[in-house]
Design a protein that fits this description.
This protein has 146 residues and is of the alpha/beta class. It is built from three helices and seven strands; from the N terminus they run E-H-E-E-E-H-H-E-E-E. It has helices spanning 11-22, 77-82, 84-104, and strands at residues 2-6, 26-31, 50-54, 67-70, 115-120, 123-127, 133-134. It starts with a strand and ends in a 12-residue tail after the last strand. Mean pLDDT is 76; it is low at 109-125 and 138-146.
């Protein structure tokens, strides 16, 4: 399965990527490195099933994927205070672009694709292909399932 993780170089995103890669998925990590760090995903660079896309989520993007985990967010009071406009743009425009992207890919209810995850600050719901909502995979601080 080809999976997009926005904010993939951040703390939660990088642990999710570790888990997805260990499960054998093809993973696209989308991050602008505003708060994420390349060192978090360094071990996957060069892996044939991993692709890093440096991109700011406040700009539209089109990719071919089967599943999306939207985790892009400057998740620290230090970053909120340093650039509150950037935080709002990331949270609002980034989420709107991802929702629009999901609509184009037919990831909205009554479609046949697999899953959509809408997660804010590590919490949220996943929509399954049966149009049911369930809790997403949760990670603890070392990346194991909670």
């Amino acid at each position: 399965m080809r999976i997009l993780v926005t904010g993939g170089a951040g703390f939660i995103g990088s642990h999710l990527i570790d888990r997805l890669m260990e499960q054998g998925h093809e993973v696209l990590c989308l991050d602008n490195f505003y708060t994420g760090h390349k060192r978090n995903i360094l071990k996957w660079l060069g892996h044939p099933y991993f692709e890093l896309v440096r991109h700011d989520i406040t700009e539209p993007i089109r990719l071919e994927v089967d599943q999306i985990y939207h985790l892009a967010c400057p998740a620290s009071p230090i970053h909120y205070q340093f650039n509150p406009v950037k935080t709002i743009k990331t949270n609002v425009l980034g989420t709107l672009y991802m929702l629009g992207f999901m609509e184009i890919l037919k990831f909205i209810p009554n479609t046949k694709n697999t899953e959509v995850a809408l997660i804010v600050q590590g919490y949220g719901l996943v929509m399954t292909k049966e149009n049911e909502w369930r809790k997403p995979l949760l990670l603890n601080i070392i990346g194991n399932t909670a």
